[in-house]
């Protein structure tokens, strides 16, 4: 009973997708999970964080349209109750039911590689005839900050699962988690300070994205401190205190450390096969781990794009590759995951939203592309109708040799729904001349596509 065709370690969305693919292909598959089936995304990341953000966005959107009756503040208890509903109150029985229904053997416990095609789970050794797939995700990266280990602080899990609004909150880190949680808790009534080491938050996006998000945060009362680094952490008067590089301090009832994540390859047995705990497992585009024909990986653990949708996409490719025995398939086919080289879509669910896909201008130029950048304010009939005083920006990056898009960024309220059109254009390598014939409906915010092409000269 401990012999399987495939063993998947990690029962989050990535592992679920890999396992479902192999099971659907007729392979006896075990899905191993140490915590909750459904993983980080379901209980501590994507779903609860967006559930916390959405009510504040809805209230702000209503206030931008005269004639809509709105209250002065959010109903905190209702917001948190809805968040809890999206996490099923941290009960994974529904996910387990799904897994069993998908034909998977559910195994609870921590999986560890103990031999070729062998996984130990709490003393039980499982064997895979075809493949082992590692989908263990990532964990918060704790900075080497003096004093931090002695200061109680939140990680992203605490920030998305808290049941009381802190009177004040200091957020260390200006990445996606930092800005989203700063805004969510500010709109729920916390006095929030965001500490960012660079000129602006969201440094991996186009610069204007970080600038507009900063404006949005400050409009919600967030104190945004830029160009300062934390040099130490301590407690004083029952509060967490960060010492900053400019000689000042930032303090709050709670401290959220949101300084990035690292692959969850600790206590996994990867050292046995030449890899280092805490580092990514290098894979090819079919998900095979370098040097091994039976070990695969997908998602954050590979060091590629740390996004749930990208991990699920890679997992589907892994599952298909295992079922078909694919070794060197052509790009853009089911057994390979090459989108993360050129066309990763991502949304930052702040207000304003940031929606981007493909390369930034800096990345495109680093790649040696001859590109033309088209920048526009989002000011069309659809945006004017959407909200009074709508403020947003769009950037289109065109490879001048191929006349195809290599990057698109939108920033503004509800721009996430523009993103998939841009993703299709980039993945499909659609020329701007052909895009000219994709007519945007009037009056929608999508009309910005027409304005971008007109600005390009079509």
Automatic annotation (TrEMBL):
Question: What is one process in the GO biological process aspect for this record?
Answer: 2-oxoglutarate metabolic process
What are the annotated disulfide bridges?
A: 41-46
Residues reported in the UniProt entry to bind FAD: 50, 111, 136-138, 300
Decide whether keyword Transcription is in the record: no
**Gene Ontology molecular function:** dihydrolipoyl dehydrogenase (NADH) activity; flavin adenine dinucleotide binding
Its cofactor is:
FAD
Q: Which InterPro entries match?
A: Class-I_Pyr_Nuc-Dis_Oxidored, FAD/NAD-bd_sf, FAD/NAD-binding_dom, FAD/NAD-linked_Rdtase_dimer_sf, Pyr_nuc-diS_OxRdtase, Pyr_nucl-diS_OxRdtase_dimer
Residues annotated as binding NAD(+): 173-180, 260
> Which keywords appear in this protein's UniProt record, sorted alphabetically?
FAD, Flavoprotein, NAD, Nucleotide-binding
All copies of the FAD/NAD(P)-binding domain together span: 4-310
Pyridine nucleotide-disulphide oxidoreductase dimerisation domain location is 344-449
How, per the record, is the cofactor bound? Binds 1 FAD per subunit.
Family recorded in the similarity comment: Belongs to the class-I pyridine nucleotide-disulfide oxidoreductase family.
UniProt name for this protein? Dihydrolipoamide dehydrogenase
The species this protein belongs to is: Saccharothrix australiensis
